[in-house]
Structures are given as structure tokens and as C-alpha cells.
């Protein structure tokens, strides 16, 4: 270490003079000010405020973790920050521990290793064990040498050591920053442990040009000592920018390191260069981690090995700490070690006493009112044999270009689950019992699992698992998420694997590593050591925490950050506006306001939203609202500041029920036909009006079975109504019993199709259809061929089936679907029409045509909604990630709205003030106050409702005028949004991609809303014409069928 003798000498003097000594608990982190990005200013409480993470949200949070952790010291600092915000208490190894039941604690060693644990409420010394997850914080890198000053042929270089087994050729030609810890001497003689993170690319290891090394592409050979020296500056520029020292106290590190490096560190930390006494610095790739791949399915990042599993371990413990610990009899513990990449033999590595001493300290400490055991050694041995260790280190995914390097039956893939690693020579510590435990947990929690074994002719790496297993006698399983390019400067991982790994390691009352009902299978069974695992006598049932694909049950709890449906949002917003107004220097207790709202709902027989959703909607009404804790010590309560209750002198409040009826009417009008496949369009009316036979050709909307649209449960197919046949249709061959029987078997046939779609078995549908029509009894075939009403009701029943399928999978535009489900549904929509036509070869042409038309329309509509759903999820992922929203807010604040208006003055006849209000106020508030996809959808709906309110046109001419108005609205929308995107591109906005993703969804969604309005207007028009025709006796069902589908036919 640089200046080691001076440090210890000064340190000993400092300790004699001052008891504080080296301050490590109040360490600071410095980042070069000009290179701080918004993402690193995001507080973890915001990023982790959701109890539920989907796969991409979890991956984005992991990316934040990696970008904030360029060195093991930063990993521990970031982990400490997250633990403290989750309620963990910091303790020290040098202090006495007084632990409490349900207590959450953590401590660090050397600033690069960290241990965190939770004490179960039911834990007792000697009776409970430890549920441990171990990982490591270090990764291969270049570390600055104690004497790093080097200069060659006019270049200033930095001497580095190679740490670990990196793929070193990947470090050439990369933009490198510097991070680590610095020992800073204070004016009072004490020393402070300080973290530094310089994100600016200040170093680079250049390669030799191909012209001077013709064999570079054949075999890239280099000297690790002389060719891997990063360039810091040129000597000429360094001389010109030299800084003259003003202070004389403190060591002079410029003797060992170039002044440019020392002064850069000092400037970043805002200290004098002479205050820098020593440091441990490593180089890192300045390119931040990011999502990649055409579907954003990959994570391109440095240090995936092993920050990937360190993150999963940390987040699993944090999330489990929020659960009820009353039945917990174990100690839940994670230990993140340093120096794994170099063998773990250090004071803070896995081969140290860090984990054993932690376990012994816990066992020798009083827990609440319980005294420590009389014989801690015996208690320790008891606890060890009731414990389990998961060694969590990244695993190798199969490489598509080097498949021959992998054992053919053990080729892990990304997105297919966490990997259990097995090695007969105990390079991994997995055994059959420990593998069984993890597989059982994964099975019960429906988390995919893979297994990995190296080829016999291939070397095998190792982990901390065998080391700790041998040291402590712990039963151990080695696991890891699959990745490519391990130990490269840039590695590749899978988005889905982050959440899979976290969920697998997550402790739960009913499922997890500490569940007795699972652990007893192996760990606590008497005959396990004899190899006799008797699982039949043990209850291994685990209540699965997630709803299955076909489950009709609602989740136990709803994420309080998700905005309620549109009607509830309108209700709350209207109630707030009616009962509260803005007033400076006034405060309203938060609890009292919510109780006021609950009372109003109770008096009107309305279900209230939860308090978190209420608070979010309150900020929609009052964007600048502040929340403060007011009152005396011990009696303080949270208040909303800047509002008050309306008084009798203010405008009278409107009753809440009337507000709901008024505000939800538009939404109900849109929703009433949103899922109807027979609603027509303005185009249909226009087509009909173009024919001379306007009275007979005007289309009418046939009446449908209404169960699908009225039934709130879309998880099952509603019963079919019996067709009503004229009396003259009945004869000896066509009876009422035959009609009833046919309705029953056709309903069951549709139900079978629905079930196959719900279970992702769409490949079986073709055979099901062909078998049904091929084996249909003769009496039913005769019914279809001779009774046209049966033909009509069959395609109506098909509409109910398809309508229910859409409602089952997409109850809302932004409803989340798994990739497997989306793939299955897309396959079904592609093939369903062909299945129908191939199954009805020998049936009447009229039946084939109608059923094929309905299938085609369903396919087109469902594909459209799936596409819209995908766009919604993409936009939601942007809006749910706070650092991206912060960047969007910053860019929008700097956006030139007036420039947009100047470009549109002569093109559009829009109200300039309204457009400015939308761009400057409404979009600004959406970004700054509640960046949620639900709020954007709500805003878009209100926008369309304001400018394109649906109504019933009195004539064809009025309908055509409305259609033209809709077209103009869409053209203007696209014109303005195109100018906005152009403006963002011109000003080189960092958030351009985020805005582009959001715009893609908004464009698609506003088109969807406009089409819904057109469909509503068309439906109203056709109903009016149909009533007129029915009055004149001129209604024609067959003509209405084809006419009502003509618009969608043109759009397919």
C-alpha cells in the first residue's frame, strides 16, 4: 500500500490524541460533479416502493445497483443504503450485540464485505438454525499499483495490477473511469474513509494498429505487464495544466503517483491533494449497464459476476423483512464477501472467520429477554446442522457459437431459470439432498430451474460454496443465474433471470429456504445421514404466492401505487375538488381527510379506494401539495399543507353519487361496445349511402347474446341462450329437443376451445374443430343445413367465445401477459380462420363465410390489441423507472414549446392557447406528479372525449362530418407529436428514446380511442336506421351481418 508506514504512524498518534480515530461509519461517496447522471440521484425508496416487481422493473433496478457499484466498496455502500432504508440497524463487530426478536441488523468489514441478518420472532438458541445466502462483491479488474507513476515517449501512464482472472483483451480500447476508497487526513489529524467514483472516461488501454501487427486477428498476444498500461494524459498537457501546491502538511503522494491523478481525485472529493494519504482504486468501464436486444431481453453490463447474485441475495432479504416474522424460528442471513476472485483468503473473504464468527456472535448474544446459551459451542453445532447455505454465484449460459464446449445434456439458457451447479469433484458443493430442497422450493413457487455440469475434458471453476461447506459443515447448494462472457469487461445476462433469482432466494412464511415444511424433508429428518429421505411423512405443501394462469382468484393485496380504474379515479378526483380547495397556511390531517372520504363513500354505498391510491389521486388535483409531520413530540401526525375544507361560503359541493354518474357516463358509453365484434363504422354507413338502395342496404347491428359483456368474470365462458325459431321451422326432423341438444354440445365445443386457449394448448384446437364437425350427428347437420336462424346464432355464439377470450386475457389495455401466453395467442390468431375453414369443408357456404368472417375479425382485433398491449408495457416500463422519468422531466423543462407553435401557425387552425396549455401544463404535470401509464391513458381518454365526443348523428351527412373531424384530429395529433420528437432530437435530449417509446404507445392508443368513438357513433346510427327499417318491415339480418363487418374487412 502507498504510504503505509506514514499512515500507521500518523494513525497511532491520532488515536492517542483523539478517540474518534478513523471514521468509517460516516464514510462519504464522491462522484465527479460534471458527470453525475440523474439515475444516481434516485433514492432507493422510490425505486423499491413497489412490493411487486415485474421482470423488467426488477432488471432496471438491478441496473441501477450495478451502475452505482463500480468497486466492492461501492457495492457495500449501496447495499448499506438499501438495508437502512428497509429498516435494518447498523451494528459493529467491535461492540457488544443486544439483539431483539424481529430485529434487522447489518455490519460491514473492511468496507468491502457486508453481513445482514433478521432474527425470527420464534427463534431460540439451539433450536433454530441459519438460512444463509452467500455471494461476493468483487469482479476481475485493473487495480492501481502502490507506485503507479509511469511516463513513456511523452505519454503519462498509470501502473496497474491485474486482479482476478479476467478476459484481459476485452479491456483494450475501452473508456475507463476510476473508483474505490481513499484515506483522507483531516485537519485535526484523524482519517476518513472516503469513496470516490469518477465516471468520466479518464483512462484507456490502446491497442496496436493492424498495420503494425499483421497477426492481430490471428492471435492477439500481449504482455500483461508492459502492454496493459492505461494512458492518462500526455506529458505536454500535464505540464501546461500543472497545479501548484499551497499547503505543506500531509504526505506528498505525487512522488508515487502522477500529480494529474492525485489532483483529479482531490478535486472530485473537494479536498486538498496533501490530504490524500492512501487509496485502493480500481478501473472500470464507464459505459453504464443497460437493457439490450431487440426485445430488451438482455442486460449488457460489467460485473454481472457476481453483482447479479449479490443483488438477488440482498433484495430477497429486504423483501422478506417486510413479512410477518411471528412464526419464524430461524436466522435469515446474507453474507457478501470480498476477494472471491482471488481465492477468498483474506480477512474479509469467505475463507476468513467472517461467517463463523457472525454465527457464533449471534448464538452467544442475548435475544430479547432470553439469555445466551450456557454452552455456546454446543448451540453452535446444533444450529449448524439445522442450517443451509446457498452459494450464489453466476453460472455459464450455453454459448450459441461454442456449443461444443458444453456437456450436451447440461446447457443452461437465459430466461429459463436459475442454475443448480453440480460437480463430482466438489468444485461445487451441491449434494442430492440440497439440490432436492431447492428444486422443491422452485417447484412449489413455479420458478424454473436448470442444472449445469462441465464436460469431463473441460476445467471447472469454483465458488465460495465448497470452502464454507468444509469450514462449517453446512449443507450447501451452489446456484447462479446464467450469463455469457463471464469475466469479460462487458457481460451478458437475461432480464427474466434477475427476478427469477430474487424470487427463488426470497424467504417467505409459507415458501422459501426457511420453510420448515420443505427444509424438514432433508435437513431435519432423522434418516437423512443414512440416505433415507422419507418425504411421505412430511407435509410439503406450500401455499403458492402467485396466481396460476387459470386462477380466478384476486391477489391477496393490490399494489397501492397502481391507480384505480377510470370510474374510481373520477370519483375520487371529483370528490376532492368538491370538498377541498387550495389555501396557503392551512393544513389538513392526512388521516382525517381519508376518513372524511370513507364516510362520504359509506353514505353513498360506494367502495373507497385504498389510502395510497387516494393520496396519489389527491396530488393529481393539487400537484404542489406538501406532506409534513406536525405536532408536539410524541403527538405529531402527518398533514397535507396548503389545502383546507370547503366552507358554506364556498360553492356548494355536488353529491358524490351525481359526480360519479356525470363523470363516468362517457367512459361507460365507450366501454359498452368496446368488446363488440359486430359494431359497425362510419365507413360502413358511407358505403351504404353510396348505393341508391339506401333504405334496404342500410346496415343494422344484429342483436347479440349479452352474457359476455355483462358478466364480470371473464375466466369462464358464459352460458349460451337458446335460439328462438319461428314456429313454422319445427317439424318431425326439427324439434325443440334437437335445438336444445345442439345448443348444449356447441356450447361445450366453444368451452373446450376456450379452455385450450387459456392453457396455451392452441396447437390442439385444429384437431378439436375437425373432430367436432366430422363426428357431428346427422340430425344436427340437417338442423344447420335447413334452418338459417341456426347459422346466424352459430356465428353469434362464436362472437361470445372470441369476446370472452379477449376479455379474459386483456381486461385492460396495460394488463401484463407472459411471453409464453403472448406467443400462444399470436399463434392462435394466425391460424384460427384456417382452422374454421378447413373444418367446414362439407358445410353450407353461408355458414363457412360467416364463421370465417367472425374469426378473421377476431384475429385482426386481437392482434391489434396485443400490439397495443405491448406498446403499453414498453411505455409503463419507462414511466415506472424514476431515473428515466427524471431525465424526461429535465428535457421537457428545456423544451422549446414556442418554437413548435411558430411552425404550426400556418398549417393548423388549432387554438394556440389550448395547445400551449396541453404541452406546457398537462404534459408537464403528467411527467412531474404521477408518472404512471394509467394516468396517461386517463388523460388521453379525456382529451378524445373533449374534442371528439360521441353522439348519434341524425343523417349520413352528419356522420361523414364526424368522420372527417376524427381524421383531422388524428392528423393534427401526429403532426404535433412529430414536431415534438423532432425538437427533442434537435436539442439532443438524452431522454429521446424514452419519449419515443411513450409516443409510440400514445399514437396507438389515441387511434384506438378514436376508432372506439367512431364505432360508437356508427352503432348509434345503425340502431336508428334498424329501428326505422323494423318499423317498415324491411330489416334484413343477412345483409346486416356482412355490412357490419365490411369496415373491419377493409382494415384487416
Automatic annotation (TrEMBL):
The keyword Transcription regulation does not apply. Residues 572-647 form the RFX-type winged-helix domain. SUPFAM superfamilies: Aminopeptidase/glucanase lid domain, Winged helix' DNA-binding domain, Zn-dependent exopeptidases. GO terms for biological process: proteolysis; regulation of DNA-templated transcription. CDD domains: M18_DAP. It is an enzyme of class 3 (hydrolase). Keywords: Aminopeptidase, Hydrolase, Metal-binding, Metalloprotease, Protease, Zinc. Transmembrane segments: none annotated. Pfam families: BCD_RFX, Peptidase_M18, RFX_DNA_binding. Belongs to the peptidase M18 family. This is aspartyl aminopeptidase. It comes from Parasitella parasitica.
Amino acid at each position: 500500500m502507498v504510504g503505509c508506514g506514514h499512515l500507521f504512524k500518523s494513525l497511532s498518534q491520532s488515536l492517542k490524541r483523539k478517540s474518534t480515530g478513523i471514521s468509517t461509519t460516516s464514510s462519504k461517496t464522491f462522484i465527479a460533479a460534471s458527470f453525475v447522471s440523474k439515475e444516481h440521484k434516485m433514492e432507493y425508496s422510490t425505486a423499491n416502493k413497489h412490493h411487486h416487481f415485474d421482470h423488467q422493473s426488477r432488471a432496471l433496478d438491478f441496473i441501477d445497483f450495478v451502475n452505482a457499484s463500480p468497486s466492492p466498496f461501492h457495492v457495500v455502500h449501496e447495499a448499506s443504503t438499501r438495508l437502512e432504508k428497509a429498516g435494518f440497524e447498523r451494528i459493529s463487530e467491535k461492540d457488544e450485540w443486544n439483539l431483539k426478536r424481529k430485529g434487522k441488523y447489518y455490519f460491514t468489514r473492511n468496507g468491502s464485505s457486508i453481513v445482514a441478518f433478521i432474527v425470527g420472532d420464534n427463534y431460540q438458541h439451539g433450536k433454530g438454525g441459519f438460512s444463509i445466502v452467500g455471494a461476493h462483491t468483487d469482479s476481475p479488474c485493473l487495480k492501481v499499483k502502490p507506485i503507479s507513476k509511469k511516463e513513456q515517449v511523452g505519454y503519462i501512464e498509470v501502473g496497474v495490477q491485474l486482479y482476478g482472472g479476467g478476459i484481459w483483451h476485452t479491456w483494450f480500447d475501452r473508456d475507463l473511469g476510476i473508483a474505490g476508497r481513499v484515506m483522507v487526513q483531516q485537519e485535526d489529524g484523524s482519517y476518513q474513509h472516503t469513496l470516490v467514483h469518477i465516471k468520466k472516461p479518464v483512462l484507456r488501454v490502446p491497442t496496436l494498429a493492424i498495420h503494425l501487427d499483421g497477426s492481430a486477428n490471428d492471435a492477439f498476444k500481449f504482455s500483461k505487464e508492459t502492454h496493459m498500461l492505461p494512458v492518462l494524459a500526455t506529458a505536454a498537457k500535464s505540464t501546461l495544466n500543472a497545479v501548484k501546491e499551497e499547503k505543506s502538511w500531509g504526505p506528498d503522494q505525487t512522488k508515487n503517483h502522477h500529480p494529474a491523478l492525485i489532483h483529479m481525485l482531490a478535486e472530485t472529493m473537494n479536498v486538498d491533494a496533501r490530504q490524500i494519504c492512501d487509496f485502493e482504486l480500481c478501473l472500470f468501464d464507464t459505459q453504464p449497464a443497460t437493457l439490450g436486444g431487440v426485445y430488451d431481453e438482455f442486460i449488457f453490463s460489467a460485473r454481472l459476476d457476481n453483482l447479479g447474485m449479490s443483488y438477488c441475495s440482498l433484495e430477497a432479504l429486504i423483501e422478506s423483512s417486510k413479512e410477518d416474522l411471528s412464526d419464524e424460528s430461524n436466522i435469515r442471513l446474507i453474507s457478501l464477501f470480498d476477494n472471491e476472485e482471488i481465492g477468498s483468503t483474506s480477512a474479509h473473504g469467505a475463507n476468513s472467520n467472517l461467517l463463523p464468527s457472525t454465527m457464533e456472535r449471534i448464538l452467544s448474544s442475548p435475544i430479547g429477554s432470553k439469555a445466551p446459551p450456557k454452552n455456546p459451542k454446543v448451540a453452535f453445532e446444533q444450529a449448524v446442522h439445522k442450517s443451509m447455505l446457498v452459494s450464489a454465484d453466476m453460472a455459464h449460459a450455453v454459448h450459441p457459437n461454442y456449443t461444443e464446449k458444453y456437456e450436451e445434456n447440461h446447457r443452461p439458457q437465459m430466461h429459463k431459470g436459475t442454475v443448480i451447479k453440480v460437480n463430482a469433484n466438489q468444485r461445487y458443493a451441491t449434494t442430492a439432498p440440497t439440490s432436492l430442497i431447492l428444486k422443491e422450493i422452485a417447484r412449489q413457487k413455479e420458478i424454473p430451474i436448470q442444472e449445469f455440469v462441465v464436460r469431463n475434458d473441460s476445467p471447472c471453476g469454483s465458488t465460495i460454496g465448497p470452502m464454507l461447506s468444509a469450514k462449517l459443515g453446512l449443507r450447501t447448494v451452489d446456484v447462479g443465474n446464467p450469463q455469457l462472457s463471464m469475466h469479460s469487461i462487458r457481460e451478458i445476462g437475461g432480464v427474466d433471470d434477475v427476478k427469477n433469482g430474487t424470487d427463488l432466494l426470497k424467504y417467505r412464511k409459507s415458501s422459501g429456504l426457511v420453510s420448515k415444511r420443505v427444509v424438514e424433508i432433508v435437513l431435519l429428518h432423522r434418516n437423512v445421514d443414512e440416505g433415507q429421505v422419507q418425504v411421505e411423512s412430511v407435509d410439503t405443501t406450500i401455499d403458492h404466492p402467485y396466481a396460476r394462469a387459470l386462477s380466478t382468484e384476486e391477489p391477496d393485496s393490490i399494489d397501492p401505487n397502481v391507480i384505480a380504474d377510470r370510474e374510481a379515479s373520477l370519483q375520487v378526483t371529483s370528490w376532492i375538488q368538491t370538498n377541498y380547495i387550495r389555501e396557503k397556511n392551512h393544513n389538513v390531517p392526512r388521516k382525517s381527510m381519508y376518513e372524511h372520504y370513507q364516510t362520504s363513500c359509506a353514505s353513498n354505498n360506494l367502495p373507497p379506494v385504498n389510502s395510497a391510491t387516494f393520496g396519489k389521486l389527491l396530488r393529481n388535483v393539487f400537484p404542489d401539495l406538501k406532506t409534513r409531520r406536525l405536532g408536539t413530540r410524541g403527538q405529531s401526525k402527518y398533514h397535507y399543507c396548503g389545502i383546507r375544507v370547503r366552507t358554506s361560503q364556498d360553492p356548494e359541493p355536488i353529491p358524490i353519487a351525481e359526480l360519479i354518474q356525470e363523470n363516468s357516463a362517457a367512459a361507460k358509453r365507450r366501454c359498452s361496445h368496446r368488446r363488440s365484434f359486430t359494431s359497425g363504422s362510419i365507413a360502413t354507413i358511407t358505403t351504404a349511402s353510396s348505393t341508391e338502395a339506401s333504405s334496404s342496404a342500410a346496415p343494422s347491428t344484429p342483436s347479440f347474446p349479452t352474457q359476455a359483456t355483462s358478466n364480470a368474470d371473464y375466466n369462464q365462458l358464459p352460458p349460451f341462450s337458446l335460439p328462438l325459431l319461428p314456429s313454422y321451422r319445427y317439424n318431425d326432423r326439427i324439434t325443440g329437443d334437437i335445438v336444445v341438444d345442439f345448443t348444449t354440445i356447441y356450447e361445450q365445443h366453444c368451452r373446450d376451445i376456450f379452455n385450450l386457449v387459456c392453457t396455451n394448448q392452441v396447437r390442439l384446437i385444429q384437431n378439436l374443430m375437425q373432430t367436432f364437425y366430422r363426428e357431428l350427428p346427422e340430425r344436427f347437420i340437417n338442423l344447420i343445413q335447413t334452418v338459417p336462424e341456426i347459422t346466424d346464432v352459430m356465428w353469434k355464439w362464436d362472437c361470445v367465445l372470441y369476446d370472452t377470450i379477449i376479455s379474459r386475457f386483456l381486461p385492460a389495455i396495460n394488463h401484463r401477459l407472459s411471453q409464453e401466453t403472448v406467443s400462444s395467442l399470436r399463434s392462435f390468431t394466425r391460424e384460427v380462420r384456417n382452422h374454421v375453414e378447413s373444418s367446414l369443408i362439407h358445410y353450407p357456404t353461408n355458414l363457412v363465410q360467416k364463421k370465417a368472417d367472425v374469426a378473421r375479425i377476431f384475429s385482426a382485433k386481437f392482434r391489434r390489441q396485443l400490439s397495443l398491449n405491448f406498446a403499453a408495457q414498453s411505455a409503463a416500463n419507462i414511466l415506472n423507472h424514476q431515473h428515466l422519468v427524471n431525465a424526461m422531466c429535465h428535457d421537457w423543462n428545456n423544451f422549446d414549446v414556442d418554437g413548435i407553435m411558430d411552425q404550426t401557425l400556418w398549417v393548423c387552425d388549432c387554438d394556440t392557447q389550448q395547445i400551449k396549455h396541453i404541452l406546457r401544463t398537462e404534459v408537464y404535470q403528467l411527467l412531474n406528479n404521477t408518472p404512471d401509464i394509467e394516468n396517461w391513458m386517463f388523460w388521453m381518454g379525456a382529451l378524445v372525449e373533449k374534442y371528439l365526443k360521441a353522439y348519434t348523428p341524425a343523417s349520413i351527412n352528419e356522420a361523414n362530418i364526424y368522420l372527417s373531424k376524427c381524421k383531422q384530429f388524428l392528423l393534427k395529433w401526429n403532426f404535433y407529436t412529430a414536431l415534438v420528437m423532432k425538437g427533442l432530437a434537435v436539442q439532443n435530449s438524452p431522454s429521446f428514446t424514452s419519449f419515443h417509446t411513450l409516443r409510440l404507445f400514445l399514437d396507438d392508443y389515441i387511434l384506438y380511442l378514436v376508432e372506439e368513438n367512431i364505432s360508437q357513433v356508427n352503432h348509434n346510427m345503425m340502431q336508428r336506421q334498424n329501428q326505422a327499417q323494423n318499423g317498415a318491415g324491411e330489416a334484413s339480418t343477412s345483409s346486416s351481418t356482412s355490412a357490419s363487418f365490411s369496415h373491419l374487412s377493409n382494415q384487416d
